[in-house]
Specification:
2 domains; 23 strands; 437 residues; Carbamate kinase; Aminopeptidase
Length: 437
Amino acid sequence: MTQASNIFIKDTIIKLLTAIGSEKEIKKYINKFSSTEQQFAVIKVGGAVVEEDLDNLISSVVFLNQVGLRPIIIHGGGPGLSKELDAKKIDFSFIDGQRVTSEAVRDVAINVFGDINSLLVRRLNEQGALAMGFKEEIFKSEKKSEELGYVGEIKKVNIKPINEAIKDGFIPVISPLGITETNEVVNINADVATINLVEEIKPYKVVFLSQVGGIYDNNESLIQSINLDLEYEEMMNADWLHSGMQLKLKQIKELLDLLPRSSSVSITKPIDLPKELFTDSGSGTLIKRGHGIDIFESKDQDIQKKFFSIIESSFNGILNKSFFNDGDYKIFLTTCERAAIAVSMEYKVPYMDKFGVIAEAKGEGIGSAIFHEMKKEFPEIFWRSKSNNPINKFYLSMADGYQKTGEWDIFWMGINDYSKLNECINFAVSKQQTISY
């Protein structure tokens, strides 16, 4: 490895470690990804990323390589293909989002995708992250229809050379091309190729890298996590989710339905890839099948025991044994028993008294999911948090407002009457602390 490569790697590691969070978080996720029996990740790289954000893409993949992780990369190339076809004055069109591929279009696609593949492999190898390119040998295909021409429908995914490359320490880089039984090369939609590859590989993580970097709501705010079990129907019926993202969300759901429940899909930017993978807060949109959420009365002794276990794991402290003795509570509990919320009904406005996610589940999106379910049940609600609590950033993203009062930050949603709000703040401040450390 050259001196320039060593300097590049050192600068890359320093830059990314500074940007993404604590060493403890990073080690937690590296251990999780390294110990799983599943392949680590399939990363789909959009063609626009290759054209406009190549340096950040290479930096992020080099970082993964340096910590001992070998992702499988599959790239697109649509924008580059369109430019080259325009330059050669070759006509093309689309049917239902798929490029009609004449023989002339196919031949240009082979060259464009081959060049992108070679570029990615060369740049990774230059920086010490060994990569191996695969152009048309992975997807055994047949022509999808006469109308679409040389567009391939995948019949089999040849994963043997991919697994062998990873075993030998290489990062596989795959083009969206296929080969038919008659040895004709066909063009494959990169998202479709990714879905077929993921279905066969069943990786722990699936990442779509794009310039947009996630899914945004009707206020143009990034949606940090989506629990498909709870939110899919609502999102698909939302008028603000445009048709292209609806299709992608539908494809992601179909994909996750085929994978182990531990799998997830992330949509993020290349520069944010390490942060999305190695921090609890993430960066981009994390999509999981999720788990159901049940609501219980606080009188159930078995539910109380589960609640105590979750809260004490989350806070790394001891919850007062008399917590449920006074007052009426509603307990929200995920079916996986990894996140819980207790809402006190003793005041005229519901008060979220405790919210916790067990330590090993933080960063999986279940906290956001259970919080959304609580919000549906209680449109008006308030709560408090220590001013130095790292979760306050999440609370700020969820709350309609907050106020600092000494050691406590008071948050609220749906409370618009100032006098009522002032009373809620005073109530929250007066509450006794119930966790000991």
